[in-house]
Design goal:
274 residues; alpha/beta; Rossmann fold; Adenine-specific Methyltransferase, domain 2; 8-stranded mixed sheet; two-stranded parallel ribbon; 7 helices; 10 strands
Length: 274
């Protein structure tokens, strides 16, 4: 991620998810946290088990269920078995064959993503990415945790440390934040708690970067927009970086931003037009 400081002591990926950011950061120590315990358990296994053992075990599961882009029966059989056993590698394999590679649970923590027929599969590209991911987990100094973001201990963090947040977005509804998947939802309460946490980190000199959206499908996150005026805003789509840009509720654009308390590029204030 090029918008991060060039030298980092400790880096926290507070809402790690797929760990795409944390795994690629150059830092003395990396903390990866997520509320979905199944993801953290998977990363723990990838970290502890040899890469060859992991790849062989995954390919054995694929062979056992005769998985392919067309075999829906094999996919459903694996999904049913996973929901009974909660096997860590079974979850990884299901995701390889699920619709859009999504991880989705119901309120009873039963995996319920449908089959990605004709599209999703375990292929050479996924295998290479998996091997690279496992090697990085084992070679880098990475601490994994499964906590609510408000319980993460920032006591020892200081000016050479960076906290990165890619939380659920308040004005979007996904399978991770609708409160119906057996995990904590994301509401105005959580939004304000996170922003207050980032303010507190800023007061102590800790650097932070927050990925989020100002607008999505005609909705605007007014809480975030007002709060962001204290910091620097980088627009992911550079066409929105014009300070005279005006949002209209009838427009359906998604405006993605990176908000930081350190300089990564030009920033501007936002004007709203209703």
């Amino acid at each position: 991620m090029s918008d991060l400081p060039s030298e980092i002591n400790r880096f926290v990926d507070l809402f790690a998810g797929g760990l795409n950011v944390g795994i690629n950061v150059k830092a003395q120590k990396i903390y990866a946290n997520d509320q979905i315990n199944y993801l953290i358990e998977m990363y723990e296994l990838f970290k502890q088990q040899s890469v060859d053992e992991t790849v062989t075990a995954i390919e054995n599961i694929i062979e056992k269920y005769n998985l392919s882009k067309e075999n829906v029966k094999g996919y459903n059989a694996l999904r049913n078995d996973y929901n009974s056993s909660k096997g860590v590698l079974e979850l990884f394999v299901i995701t390889c064959y699920s619709f859009n590679h999504q991880i989705r649970f119901n309120n009873s923590h039963q995996f319920n993503t449908p089959f990605g027929k004709g599209r999703s599969s375990y292929n050479s590209s996924i295998k290479k990415n998996l091997v690279d991911f496992c090697v990085a987990l084992q070679e880098k100094s990475i601490v994994l945790s499964n906590d609510d973001f408000m319980r993460f201990d920032f006591t020892e963090f200081g000016v050479n440390d960076v906290v990165y947040c890619d939380p659920p977005y308040l004005i979007t509804t996904g399978s991770y934040n609708d409160g119906k998947r057996g995990f904590k939802d994301w509401s105005v309460k959580e939004e304000n708690e996170l922003l207050e946490l980032l303010d507190a980190l800023n007061d102590r000199g800790v650097k932070f970067a927050l990925s989020n959206v100002f607008q999505h499908k005609g909705l605007t996150n007014d809480i975030l927009i007002e709060w962001s005026k204290k910091y620097r805003v980088t627009y992911i789509n550079k066409s929105y970086s014009n300070c005279n840009y005006q949002f209209k509720e009838k427009e359906s654009k998604t405006v993605e931003v990176l908000i930081t308390n350190y300089k990564v590029g030009e920033s501007c204030q936002l004007r709203l037009e209703t």
